[in-house]
Amino acid sequence: MTNTEVFLQQMIIGLSNGMIIALIALGYTMVYGIIELINFAHGDLFMLGCFLALTILGALGIDAAYDPNSVSLAVLPLFIAVPAFCAIVNWSVDRFAYRPLRSAPRLAPLVSAIGVSFIFLNLGLFWGGLPMDVFNGGVAAAAPKDFPALVSRTNLLGESSNIIVRWNEVLVAMVTVPMMVGLSLIVRFTRIGKAMRAVAQNQTAARLMGIDVDRVIGATFLIGGALAGFASIVWASYNETIYFQMGFRVGMDAFTAAVLGGIGSLPGAVLGGVVIGIVRAMSEGYIAAEWTNVVVFTILVVVLTFRPSGLLGTPTREKV
Amino acid sequence: MQSKAHSPLFVRHAIVLGVLAAVIVGCGGSGPSTPSESSGTPSTAATPTPKGGDPNVIKIVSSLPQTGSANSQIMTIVNGIKLAIDEVGGKVGDFTIKYEPWDDASPERGQWDSAVETANAHKAVADPDIMVYIGTFNSGAAKFSMPILNQASLLMISPANTWPGLTKPGIGEANEPATYRPSGKVTYYRVVPTDELQGTVAAQWANEMGCKRVYLLHDRELYGKGVATMFEKAAKELGMELEGPEGIDPKAANYRSLATKIKQTNPDLVYFGGTTQTNAGQIAKDLRAAGVTAKFMVPDGCFEDAFIQAAGAENVEGNTFITFGGLPADKLTGKGAEYYENYKKKYNSEPQAYSAYGYECGRAALEAIRIAGKKDRAAIAEACGKIKDFDGLLGKWSFDENGDITMKTLSGNIVKNGKFEFAKILGQ
What we know:
By secondary structure, chain A is mainly alpha-helical. In chain A, 68% of the residues lie in helices and 1% in strands. Chain A has a single domain (3-306), classed as ABC transporter involved in vitamin B12 uptake, BtuC (Orthogonal Bundle). Chain A contains eleven helices and two strands. The longest helix of chain A is centred in the first third of the chain and has 33 residues, at 3-35. By secondary structure, chain B is α/β, with parallel strands linked by helices. Chain B has two domains: 57-193 and 333-397, Rossmann fold, CATH 3.40.50; 195-324 and 411-426, Response regulator (Rossmann fold), CATH 3.40.50.2300. Chain B is 39% helix and 19% strand. Chain B contains 14 helices and 17 strands. Chain B has a seven-stranded mixed sheet with strand order 10-9-11-12-13-16-17, with helices on one face. Chain B has a six-stranded mixed sheet with strand order 2-3-1-6-7-8, with helices on both faces. A two-stranded antiparallel sheet of chain B has the order 4-5. In chain B, helix 3 packs parallel to helix 13. Classes of the chains: A mainly alpha, B alpha/beta.
């Protein structure tokens, strides 16, 4: 491999990882933008999405020994069921854990979110113990689970090429990019999008204008949850391993991306995710794996020092 | 509600940064530091055994991570201990032996937890009937309970701790093992060979297989880094070319970038000092995905079915090598073969790698009680050290003056048809 090839390969890896992070970061940033709550349960919701995806695959009889080329259509139900499940769960969490605390001090819903995160974590632990083949018969509930490859593993650039681009990388881009564009369009051009922006700016004024604030917040959680659902399928297919504790780490990466890009800003979350993905890849590839977290968080601290509201965050929020 | 909008920006960022700081600490904090319990100067004042209890009952407890990915492995260890006690009919002399399996893991960590292990040790010390503490599974966990139990002269026998510093002076940290023995006496014994042996033997095995270039990885934990360090030392002596050692982030989503870097160096072997819980499966997967064709070798922390399941059988088939501080159950002879038959008869399932050591722990505990002949913690702990030429699973063994077993048999295993298969006896 020449140096250019290595660099390109690391860019591809970084970009793919970054786009997945961005997809989850969108869920964080939307909720924060609208009710200023760091939804700690988001990462664990994503984890539950992964477990549902594996359960469905198991029920369809798709396991690691399956030929990925013949699976492609059978996994379509995943792309409906998992986002729907995550959306509904996320909406319910808001309805039962956050909405009653809407007028409570800021820390109350935050603690509530941490509580929900623990509930999800333990649900995941329980789920992993289901006596299904895909969960290894459920004998080791907490062990990492192998997730079957959803798409072919062949190299798109030909088997002789040094750079590896597989259908998985394409899948990441094919799911992530339309999601981001779609979300931006919804927020910018639809009625509910307009209502969201209004609620984000000033809840009281929005309510005075006749906007049903709780319904708008509920819709935000629905959309955020669905994004987490899509992210979980893509993530699981890309990494091929899931385990019940993955949500915390993935959530933290996404949260960091949201902060780096400017929390509350949708393009910011995407930019933050991609930057973190690429920085991670470059650090692992050219420095050493030990230093990856140090590099990522140093960059975060430096950015926040000079731009306290993140890369694309608005310096003064339009609030009065 | 209005007040929310007016909160100063810095408050928000203070929260954000606080959370991030917690994350960074969390990322680096997986390797436990020396517990504070042991930092004081050694004192000879032992914790007295609490009064009360039943004079005819002796309790044995085990503290092993039952919650977590090691679960299936752990349950076969517990079964092994039960088997040893059942063989003597639950009686030694006039004493009735009772056994309780305790958990030292928490669901939050999914593996051993220092807080739970410390609590278990205190609980054991406080119960006047408990005379033997079997544990721990993880060397890191032992660091927390050893000083507490030692202070109370409570006998501790481990079926799986392999960190050399727990018993051997001059190999681990400067204050090891004295820091674990505040009473100055040896009360900790183990029935497995240590990492010192395992890392060295792994390097020799790799050398025999003709591997000249090795990329060395570890998980930055006590066990994983320990084995990798020993591997490094031995590999250098054998004149192998080394890259690394490089400490990975055990919670990372994937290791594609690292695998790409490894591919550039074109090694014959990638050695990972780590366990299933610290993502050995994902590493195997990403190495293959990046097109690395080198052999992959891991220590016994991955010697459990969960590792093959996590890695995906096709990624480890035929090219993944595992060293283990003992022989697989079905390769045992003599007393060991007897154990294997009895185990299968009683539990109607195959024991996993460490089960035999659970059984051996149980037998050593019973032997110590027999030699002591009385219900007295200090006497039983001392008696354990007197076990000599014991008819064990791998032949006759004794405990040396540090509390280590004299047995030095290791085995090399390979993944074949999605299962571990015994390859050869190492280190003899």
